[in-house]
Amino acid sequence: MERKTYPKVRRIICIFLLCALYTNTRYTLFCSEQLASVFNLVQIVDVLDSKDEANLALLKRPELGITFTKLHCWKLTQYQKGVFLDADTLVSCASCEPYF
Q1: Within a domain: 6
Q2: Tens of pLDDT along 65-87?
Q3: Burial 57-70 (b: 16+ CB within 10 A, else e)
Q4: How many angstroms separate the first and last alpha carbons of the chain?
Q5: Rounded to whole angstroms, how far apart are CA atoms 47 and 44?
Q6: 49 in a domain, yes or no?
Q7: In this structure, is residue 99 part of a structural domain?
């Protein structure tokens, strides 16, 4: 797989292979193309829902039912290492280097 550099996206050049997992319920073809311009692998995954409406209602967080979708990252067995960063994660340039 070709390594990409992203000077427009980051202040530093990333030398690691990057993968984006997304569900087709939330993103359009345009979004998929934009992701493909930045990530080495862009993969559509199925939504995994806990179906636990009762407990989610107690938390007043019904949107957390689909957090199991993140488990799809464990299927990326073609990589030696993996660091999961959620979509709302902000990483400072220096802080993530030790994980790679």
Answers
A1: yes
A2: 888 888 888 888 988 888 888 87
A3: eeeeeeeebeeebe
A4: 17
A5: 10
A6: yes
A7: no
